[in-house]
Amino acid sequence: MGKWASEQASKDAESPQVVEGVDEKELSLSDESSKDFVDTQLLDKAEGVAIQVISTRDDPELSVLTFRVLFLGVGLSAFSAVLSTIYTFKPQNATVSQLFCLIIAYVMGTAMAALPRHGAWRFINPGPFNIKEHTVIVIMASTASSVAVAMEVIAALDLFYDLRLNSAVAVFSIFATQMLGYGMAGMLRTLLVYPTYAFYPAYISVVNLLQSLHFDGSLNLKRRRFFWIVFAGIFFWEWIPQYAFPLLTAISVVCMVDNGRHDFVRNLFGAGSSNEGIGLLSFSTSWTLITQGTPLIWPLQTQINSFIGMGLGYIVLTAAYYSNVFNGRDIPFMSTSLFGADGQTYNQSAVIDSNYRVNQEALDTIGLPRYTTTYAISQLCYNLSLGSAFTYIVIWHWPELKTAFGGLRFLKSGHADIDDPHYKEMQKYPEVPQWVYAFLFFASLAVGIGCSYAGPHGTVLIPAWSIIFFTILSALIAVVLGFITATTGFNLATKYAIQIIAAFLHPGQPIPVMYANLFGNSTSFQTLLLLQDLKLGQYTKVPPRMTFAAQMAGSIIGSIFNYAMMKIIVNNNRAVLQDPIGTRVWSGWIIQQYNSASVAMGAFGKDLFSIGKPSGYWIIPFAMFIGLFLPIPFWIVWKLARPGSRLASAMKYVNVPIITLYIGWLPYSVNGQWWSCFVIGIFSQWWLRTRHPVWFVKYNYLLSAALDGGSQVILFILSFAVFGASGKAVEFPTWWGNPANVSVDRCKLTPG
């Protein structure tokens, strides 16, 4: 275990060793040959799955741009954009996975391939539905399904400021902030796409399923059968915990014994409803929730570090609340909303005037807002994580950074000299020139600046100089976040840090702070999305220019449908979305974060976050600087320890950014799934991977794909059929497993 941990943590960029006499392509179990051969030495490294599980096979003659691609790509982009927008307003932190898009595309693509091929039909059906067509459709749909931060900010303006942007301005704002990130991504391909160490763990299951569905061979027939059996099983199961028997989404023995009588039990063990509790010893049988922890996909190192952080979080969050840290003992344990001195929801409309600035007289009467203790701790931990990420990347991954950026190598066009088998297969295809990415970047920046000056009644949403500043900052952040995501599958949050910086640049102005998040956080997030899809294209051998075009198309379609569906949901559920707690069906907790930050940081930033102020919130922004030093002690011990010793391996195994982030991970949404994630993650990434590597390589990522796909399909059906996405919710009859006057896990009394 110690040796495995050391090798996994190193994640060096060297070419993996293969067994002498075995052809490189035979290392993949997607091929007919070498069906039971597994290079366990290669599999020991986290990035080894990219070589062991994924085939390097390519057929340059396969069609890429067909009528099927356009028809299904546009249709599924619109569909997934609508579904992801619905999820944004759900209490669960659910997303539309690429696996969901992949499955729908496969069913429809193979159906179209069954049409006649003679005469004019050949335009519609040029031949068998191939892996490259399939990948392009998936990239388009998954791009559209990624809800833009701009849409969430626009929703916050509507819900909490009664400020409604012109539809054209809104859509162009969404599109421009996405395109800025894509321009940045082009400059980072040498560092974060081409090498083996940049393997993006979450994408292994996507590629594994694509190759299983399209490559021939008896092994793949068995794997396809396995996939559809699991898919059907979870499809017919998932409606039970999600609708008929919701107790199964958060099974807590402690809560069932207490039955909602004690607040302490609810806060620590509750997990069944939005903002109920942090879910200690709560287990879930709903894969819709469990998949949020990606237990079958994330490398063991990532999962272990997240569990360590979460374990510390149970202690820190509970102790802080009951010790009255940040003076939050008299307000709810969990909420992302702001509260006043009276313990009620903060009356922001009274202190923000018609020009969206602070009304000092009203502020003197009402007082400053307050965060819940757990939300303040969470922001502090997120900033610790971000600060530590910069140091962590420099001290542990300096050779990779030096290789990529030395001599401004990342600015050069053409193919890089990188020893990766997948990348070598791609060198037959022309790359997108760097000037295209540069043009996209500057054009999007201009559009973004123009939209910021087109607010209602001549309102300037954010000045041009601020947009430029935060865009540059976002580019720097993208390098750090991209490296962590590429090697661990883990995404860090930057929005709190960006909002705090904006609060000091735009004091007393809540809306510019909210918009700074678009250009300082959203752009780096979109950078990661394009980098990941470029890697997906590299794995499946889609020409880079086609991958780029698919991303652009998906972004345009997604921008339009994100905005349209958001307006429908906000208009139909305004009161629930404004409520600080929400319901089991609808919740505005994601949107409320932007509003809370804009008011607390934008309107009152200096009063709340400066040193010496009564709130004590000054430590939240200062945590970024503290975080810079947190990885250093572990690195020093590693340097002093004997090479190869258990102590050295342990120090290199510790990922400080992940641990610190997960200390503050829990005070949001529902938390019934994390102990199930722990059990499944250990079973998959340790027991199966080390004790049954052949089964792991053949079926583990396929299992994840099937579970994600089946659960997302049924959740989509339930959202429109009974959860109210179509305008009217249909409640399941009350019974023991679906109680009326207590939360589903029996930990919180509810009105009724």
From TrEMBL:
Gene Ontology biological process terms in this record: protein transport
MF terms in GO: oligopeptide transmembrane transporter activity
Transmembrane segment boundaries: 65-89, 95-115, 136-161, 167-185, 197-214, 226-257, 304-322, 380-398, 435-455, 467-493, 552-570, 617-638, 700-723
Origin superkingdom: Eukaryota
Membrane association type: Multi-pass membrane protein
Chief location of this protein within or outside the cell: membrane
Alphabetically ordered keywords of this record: Membrane, Peptide transport, Protein transport, Transmembrane, Transmembrane helix, Transport
Cross-referenced Pfam families: OPT
Location relative to the cell: Membrane
Segments of this protein annotated with the region Disordered: 1-34
Composition skew (Basic and acidic residues), residue ranges: 22-34
A GO cellular component annotation in the UniProt record: membrane
Family, as annotated: Belongs to the oligopeptide OPT transporter family.
PANTHER family (alphabetical): ISP4 LIKE PROTEIN (PTHR22601)
Protein name: OPT superfamily oligopeptide transporter
